[in-house]
Design a protein that fits this description.
- With 201 residues, the chain is an alpha+beta fold.
- The chain is 21% helix and 43% strand.
- It has four helices and 13 strands.
- A hairpin with a 4-residue loop joins strand 4 (86-92) and strand 5.
- The longest helix is centred in the N-terminal third of the chain and has 15 residues, at 2-16.
- The chain is globular.
């Protein structure tokens, strides 16, 4: 387990005083809290969020209002505002996504559509996990995991992106963040979630 390894290595550094001994800045408050929280949140497979998103890359930046509904692996994302230059509706899954912009329709992979909209290779297949404040279990384990006292994630790094989570709110489904910031090199995004809801199946 990452928690036991980080804690043991930190104690070894403290006891032996070895020079050059360093660990990732992982704060382990209670690994059981994190495991329980992650398991609970990972059970949420049908949710809707709305709010505002912004992004910035070396070449451009923008923002938009959004509404996002996720049901298992399928999603519908509506964007409106400067980023979308009107209203854009994206429907799809992890393999393929269709973007409707006015009378025009575009069928691509989710990541290709993200690049078309923002100029950034946003990992869409990971974002549906990140918005709930947990790493994707389908990718490499996160690095630099820092926990809050209640077991929620303050930040972690996955797939090259450094994620910061804040403004958690409690729901019957668990604690969920309402502010998420991601950064990778000169690329960054921010999600401000104004509303969480959980449609019935």
């Amino acid at each position: 387990m990452r928690f036991k390894y980080s804690l043991s290595l930190s104690l070894l550094c403290l006891i032996t005083g070895l020079s050059g001994c360093s660990t990732a800045p992982t704060q382990v408050i209670d690994g059981r809290n994190w495991s329980n929280h992650r398991e609970q949140v990972s059970q949420i497979n049908h949710w809707s969020i709305s709010g505002k998103m912004g992004y910035r890359s070396a070449e451009q930046g923008g923002s938009a209002n959004f509404m996002w509904t996720q049901n298992q692996g399928d999603y519908t994302i509506s964007l409106s505002g400067p980023l979308a230059m009107g209203r854009v509706v994206i429907t799809g899954n992890q393999r393929v996504a269709e973007m409707q912009h006015g009378k025009n329709s575009y069928l691509q992979t989710p990541d290709q559509l993200a690049i078309q909209l923002t100029g950034m290779p946003l990992p869409v297949q990971l974002l549906n996990w990140w918005v709930t404040g947990v790493p994707s279990p389908e990718h490499l384990s996160p690095d630099n995991l820092v926990l809050n006292s209640d077991g929620t994630a303050s930040n972690f790094k996955q797939h090259g992106w450094q994620l910061v989570f804040s403004r958690y709110q409690f729901f019957d489904q668990g604690y969920l963040p309402t502010k998420i910031i991601g950064q990778k090199d000169e690329q960054s995004f921010k999600l401000i979630i104004k509303n969480w809801s959980f449609p019935e199946n």
